[in-house]
């Protein structure tokens, strides 16, 4: 039977983490806290587990989840053609609320959905998520909600939506409390998503594809003119559609303006 484990209690934390690791290894789903919203996690290298994640959310392969990673060192293992400005941004803002969309390593044996060769990556700033990632490696993580509903910012809300489709819920308290809500989007603490897939063909620009908790001003302070101006028209490129993520949360990208991204 599905259970929520209170990670503020030492015994629950130890048991919950052990069962979460076991669930991931068996291709089951786990809900975890991140610094932005709660995430629905699966083994990124198990096509069956990723499909289970999409099914639980009521989403199709056209909405591939982003991938959460345990450290900056994992970036080069999962992506290629990484622009220097991206390295500067992740050095500044990881772990934290920045998702970067890059070209995936072509040698990787995984199937996240219809990514068209891209992957959205983020290193979350949450000790529970990082503890699990340190043991499991990269996880496909989408926002812990069913499609069309707001992302969960606590474990109980995630459980109400996802129920028995999830084997283990890790409760780390309210998510997103370390960030200011985004503009007039009350309660929205989504990650900022940067698309770097066109950098080498669009004049060396990184494009903000979703505004989030890392402001344009903060990004520009690090990379300057490498950040594309607002209104910049980039070549059409595939970006993962889901936010935990998962990597867009705007209606024009996902068809669901209420969903936010954990990974992203």
UniProtKB/TrEMBL annotation:
Cross-referenced Gene3D superfamilies: DHBP synthase (3.90.870.10)
Region ranges (Disordered): 238-264
Domain YrdC-like per the UniProt entry, residue ranges: 14-214
Reaction it catalyzes: L-threonine + hydrogencarbonate + ATP = L-threonylcarbamoyladenylate + diphosphate + H2O
Superkingdom of origin: Bacteria
Pfam families associated with the record: Sua5_yciO_yrdC
InterPro entries: DHBP_synth_RibB-like_a/b_dom, Sua5-like_dom, T(6)A37_SUA5, TC-AMP_synthase_SUA5
Residues in the signal sequence: none
Enzyme Commission number: 2.7.7.87
Protein name: L-threonylcarbamoyladenylate synthase
Organism listed in the record: Cryobacterium glucosi
């Amino acid at each position: 039977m599905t259970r929520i484990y209170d990670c503020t209690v030492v015994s629950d934390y130890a048991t919950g983490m052990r069962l979460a690791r076991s669930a991931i290894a068996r291709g089951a789903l786990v809900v975890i806290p991140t610094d932005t919203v709660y995430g629905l996690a699966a083994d990124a290298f198990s096509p069956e587990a990723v499909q289970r994640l999409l099914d639980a959310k009521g989403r199709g392969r056209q909405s591939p989840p982003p991938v959460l990673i345990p450290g900056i060192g994992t970036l080069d293992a999962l992506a290629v053609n990484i622009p220097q400005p991206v390295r500067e941004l992740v050095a500044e803002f990881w772990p934290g609320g920045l998702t970067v969309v890059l070209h995936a390593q072509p040698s990787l044996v995984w199937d996240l959905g219809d990514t068209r060769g891209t992957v959205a990556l983020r290193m979350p700033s949450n000790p529970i998520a990082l503890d699990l990632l340190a043991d499991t490696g990269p996880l496909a993580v989408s926002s812990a909600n069913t499609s069309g509903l707001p992302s969960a910012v606590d474990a109980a809300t995630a459980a109400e939506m996802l129920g028995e489709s999830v084997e283990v819920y890790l409760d780390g308290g309210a998510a997103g409390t370390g960030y200011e809500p985004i503009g007039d989007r009350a309660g929205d603490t989504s990650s900022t998503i940067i698309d770097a897939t066109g950098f080498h063909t669009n004049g060396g620009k990184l494009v903000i594809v979703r505004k989030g908790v890392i402001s344009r001003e903060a990004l520009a302070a690090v990379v300057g003119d490498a950040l594309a101006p607002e209104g910049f028209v980039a070549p059409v490129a595939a970006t993962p559609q889901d936010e935990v993520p998962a990597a867009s949360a705007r209606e024009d990208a996902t068809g669901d303006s209420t969903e936010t991204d954990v990974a992203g």
